[in-house]
Amino acid sequence: MYSEIDKHLSRNTFISEGEFELLHSYIRKRIVRKRGFLLSQGEVCNFEAYIVKGCLKKYYIDDKGDEVILQFAVEDWWISDIGSFSEQKPSNLFIEALEDSELLVIDYANKEKLFEEVPGLERVFRMMIQKSYAVLENRFYSSIAKSAEERYLEFVKKYPAIVQRVPQTQIASYLGITPESLSRIKSKMFKKKPAA
Amino acid sequence: MYSEIDKHLSRNTFISEGEFELLHSYIRKRIVRKRGFLLSQGEVCNFEAYIVKGCLKKYYIDDKGDEVILQFAVEDWWISDIGSFSEQKPSNLFIEALEDSELLVIDYANKEKLFEEVPGLERVFRMMIQKSYAVLENRFYSSIAKSAEERYLEFVKKYPAIVQRVPQTQIASYLGITPESLSRIKSKMFKKKPAA
DNA sequence: CGCGACGTTGATTTGCCTCAACGATTGTGG
DNA sequence: CCACAATCGTTGAGGCAAATCAACGTCGCG
Q1: What is the SS3 string spanning A5-44?
Q2: Cα dihedral sign for B8, B133, A21, A38?
Q3: Is strand D less than 7 A from the beta carbon of A175?
Q4: Residue A71 lies in a domain
Q5: Which nucleotides of D are covered by protein (CB under 7 A)?
Q6: Does the pLDDT value for residue B194 go beyond 60?
Q7: Contacts of B131 in chain A (CB under 8 A)
Q8: Could you list the residue range(s) of the whole structural domain that residue B77 is in?
Q9: Of A53, A81, A154, B16, which has the fewest CB atoms closer than 10 Å, so is most exposed?
Q10: Nucleotide showing the shortest C1' distance to residue A170 CA
Q11: Is B119 touching A (CB cutoff 8 A)?
């Protein structure tokens, strides 16, 4: 049950057996059923969740009442509202399971304690978030500079697994376009280059 | 000369006199004249820079040869290409001074050493980047879900000082619209609600 | 079995871009 | 110190990518 997260966290830094045990004592397992919520708007996000199995989405509801999907997350990813978590203030976001999911969660207090007792992990988490920051920057660059079609192609290339697992409507929302537009983009692509 | 950065870094964590001195020995002052470059495309970003005085922009050049501005930074902010810095690989970005600027910079090796010797600062920097992440997330949400006009209003509200200091063309680039569009947006706003 | 979610397609609208021209301001070299 | 160039902001005309509104077939789930 812990093997994946252990491997995930020790990718760049040595962590001893004892430290792993400490880590395990600070995290707990959590199951969320399809359509279940890990976080709802208005709550303080009190966790960072590592996904052992399953698929979730993070989104907010815009003025028009539509979902705007910000992130999909599958196995071996983390999901959280970092802003809400790190400042311990209410979130505007929802995190909802798209499939039955199995998570390992750590809460704010335990994360603090863990860093005190295993300083090496503070480094690991700092590097993780630096990496996330760079990824988000790249996504941001695409979103301002590229057309809907380019963004879709990029998405398919980057996350082929998610394209399989998630309905098209939701991918459209993630890309910031309407489902109708995505449908048209796909049919146009298909005419141009009949499958690879 | 160090008073601002000391205050900045000790906002959330206690740092002793001796630790501050260590910090000062690892950073160095740097002056960049208006239109001077702190980073150019192709270089590895080997610094994180704290702005004591001045104003800079970070941008890349898109396929059409246009500047796409990703960040403005003024006094008491940090600027760097985090992706390039943390992975020590070439950057796609430029960082250029919009005014004569005075910076305090720390390079990769010194930052590592500093964290080893003052673990409390690892925490400070982790929190800083978490904060930056949250800010970037918010900006990203706006860019996919909001109209040009909404984004401009948001910008004016959030960074009134920058609106004063930076030409409109550059703000347009930051907002992901053309200067012409921004001009029209402003004139339309002015008709609707003749100043506040 | 029936209802709601999903995907597709068509007609129309719209927000923003592109291209172009022009006046005002800033900065610079002779 | 002036002249000229470059930068900046504005305005107009026309075009295009994607949104909106609407209708319809399919599928899977309760």
Answers
A1: HHHHHCCCCCCCHHHHHHHHHHEEEEEECCCCEEECCCCE
A2: positive
A3: no
A4: yes
A5: 7-13, 17-22
A6: no
A7: 86-87
A8: 3-118
A9: B16
A10: C6
A11: yes
Are B136 and A131 within 8 A, CB to CB? Answer: no
CB–CB of B35/B83 below 8 Å? no
Q: Per-residue pLDDT tens for B77-87? A: 999 999 999 99
Residue identified by tokens 């962590």 is A15
Across B2-100, the runs of DSSP E, i.e. the strands, are 28-32, 37-39, 47-53, 55-61, 67-74, 78-79, 94-97
In a domain, B127, yes or no: no
Q: Is residue B195's pLDDT more than 50?
A: no
Instruction: List all residues of chain A from 29 to 88 with a beta carbon under 8 Å from chain B.
Output: 60, 62, 68, 70, 82-83, 86-87
Answer yes or no: are the C-beta atoms of B54 and B101 closer than 8 Å. yes
Copy the structure tokens of residue B154: 């948001």
Is residue B191 predicted with pLDDT exceeding 50? yes
The pLDDT assigned to B101 comes to 94
Task: Find the mean pLDDT for residues B114-141.
Answer: 92
For residue B100, the domain's CATH number is: 2.60.120.10
Separation of alpha carbons B29 and B121, rounded Å: 19
Which residues of chain A have a pLDDT value below 70?
Answer: 191-196
Contact B143 A140 (CB under 8 A): yes
Rounded Cα gap, residues A116 and B97, in angstroms: 39
Q: Tell me the pTM.
A: 0.90
Using a pLDDT cut of 90, give the percent of chain A over it.
Answer: 83
Nearest nucleotide (C1') to the CA of residue A187? C8
* B187 beta carbon to strand D: under 7 Å: yes
**Is A147 within 7 A of strand D by CB distance?**
yes
Q: Which pLDDT score, from 0 to 100, does residue A193 have?
A: 52
Q: Residue A10: inside a domain, yes or no? A: yes
Q: How far apart are alpha carbons B44 and B85 in whole angstroms? A: 7
pLDDT of residue B128: 94
Pick the closest to residue B67 from B77, B56, B59, B75 (CA basis).
B59
Task: Please report whether residue B20 resides in a domain.
Answer: yes
CA-to-C1' distance for A196 and C9, Å? 24
Banded pLDDT at B117 (limits 50, 70, 90): very high
Distance of CA A106 to the CA centre of its chain: 15
Which phi and psi angles does A114 have, rounded to 5°?
-60, -45
